[in-house]
Design goal:
The complex is a heterodimer of chains A (about 160) and B (about 240). Chain A is α+β, with helices and mostly antiparallel strands and about 160 residues long. In chain A, about 65% of the residues lie in helices and about 15% in strands. The chains are: A alpha+beta (about 160), B alpha/beta (about 240). Chain B: One of its GO terms (molecular function) is ATP binding.
Chain lengths: ~160, ~240
């Protein structure tokens, strides 16, 4: 579930008059519901859409998100992620220890009941890393398998 | 800017001649976005490769600012359907590569600027396999635009992406066009007629192989275009009827 998909979903909702149900989104995009649901869940979690009686509705924040550039959008996502308990704990641990191993982060995700309705812990980890890196909150060193604070936090 | 003048292309296969393109002519002016549409196998990509200077026409001429294209021109760059990334190079290195090949000294700085413009600044140390299809194509876009081309060629650039990702990148290409001062025009090959109508000023409609130009249509719909508007789907219908 990527940044481009998220933007595509918001733009589609806007073009459809601000709201649509999963069946309509699926029809418009030729994508299966199981591909669409995680994007809806993440969008709702960070306040870009609301789910009401089966319809996904673009919120005021969602409309503004579309109007912003990449930097403004990354800041919005960063602010929202920092409100989540799972990110809070990861950031606190990183501030204490300097770095965390992948397994440490997965344990934190598991202790919070997962992330963004992902079906496996591995998928949840990848999703969290993607959005954490995108927003500048964390950095991920693939070679050493270590998660560190992003530039935004280390200043 | 670009003139394609009675260009034909044939290949020899098992001793027999296969005519792919037959006397195709069209032009591209500065400031234009032109798409080429046509049935599968009609030679759209071959035509683009000839414009890129990777292949030569069997007959006819292709000129760019009055000069015949015989080899790749540094003022023309290309975005590929398959992204064409080097698997072992990090994101930043992918964008630096063509810059270094051209001897640009501040290649890293320029690459960073373009990664920032395509929203990948935080991912510069990642490898392509660690990124989604949309992010990989963002690298392809950054790499193509970092060399400051005058003409951008796009060969089915969104066809291997899901529709939500593709739609985002279609809009972003149009936005980036405004922020790339050297980029004058874009020429895209696509089999997606809605995509062509969404993005283009003009559309060159090609026939089945050996392909000829059926018609060149103007798309006079103001931007940003909405697929739900009557004007939009009337234009789509017009192209479908030309091809059927």
């Amino acid at each position: 579930m990527s940044y481009s998909r998220l933007l595509g979903l918001l733009r589609l909702l806007r073009d459809l008059g601000g709201k649509a149900d999963v069946a309509k989104i699926s029809e418009e995009t030729d994508m299966h519901a199981d591909e669409i649901l995680p994007i809806l869940a993440f969008s709702e979690m960070i306040g870009l859409i609301s789910i009401d009686e089966g319809d996904a509705k673009l919120t005021e924040s969602g409309i503004n998100f579309l109007k912003q550039g990449h930097t403004g959008r990354a800041k919005y996502v960063r602010d929202k992620l920092m409100e989540l308990k799972v990110f809070n704990e990861i950031l606190n641990e990183l501030k204490k220890k300097g770095s965390l191993e992948k397994e440490d982060v997965m344990e934190i995700i598991a202790s919070k009941g997962g992330f963004c309705y992902c079906s496996s812990l591995e998928e949840a980890f990848n999703c969290l890393i993607h959005w954490g890196v995108y927003s500048g909150l964390i950095e991920y060193d693939r070679e050493e398998n270590l998660i560190r604070l992003g530039e935004v936090n280390s200043k | 800017m670009l003139e394609v003048d009675r260009v034909s292309k044939y290949f020899i296969s098992d001793g027999s001649r296969l005519d792919v393109i037959k006397e195709v002519s069209f032009s591209l002016k500065e400031g234009e976005f032109v798409s080429i549409v046509g049935p599968s196998g009609c030679g759209k990509s071959t035509l683009l490769r000839m414009i890129a200077g990777i292949e030569r026409p069997s007959s006819g001429r292709i000129t760019f600012y009055g000069k015949e294209i015989n080899s790749p021109d540094p003022r023309i760059s290309m975005i590929f359907q398959s992204f064409a990334l080097v698997p072992w190079l990090k994101v930043i290195e992918q964008v630096e590569l063509p810059l270094r090949a051209r001897g640009i000294e501040n290649a890293k700085e320029v690459a960073r600027k373009w990664l920032n413009l395509v929203g990948l600044s935080e991912f510069e140390e990642f490898l392509p396999k660690e990124l989604s299809g949309g992010m990989r194509q963002r690298i392809g876009i950054a790499r193509a635009l970092a060399v400051e081309p005058s003409l951008l060629l796009m060969d089915e650039p969104f066809s291997s992406l899901d529709e939500l990702t593709a739609e985002t990148l279609r809009h972003e290409i149009l936005e980036l066009w405004k922020s790339a001062p050297s980029l004058k025009s874009i020429l895209m090959v696509t089999h997606n007629i809605e995509e062509a109508v969404l993005m283009s000023d003009r559309i060159v409609v090609l026939s089945r192989r050996p392909s000829t130009v059926i018609k060149i249509l103007n798309v006079d719909i103001p931007r940003p275009r909405n697929r739900k508007e009557e004007q939009f789907y009337n234009k789509v219908d017009e192209i479908y009827s030309l091809l059927s």
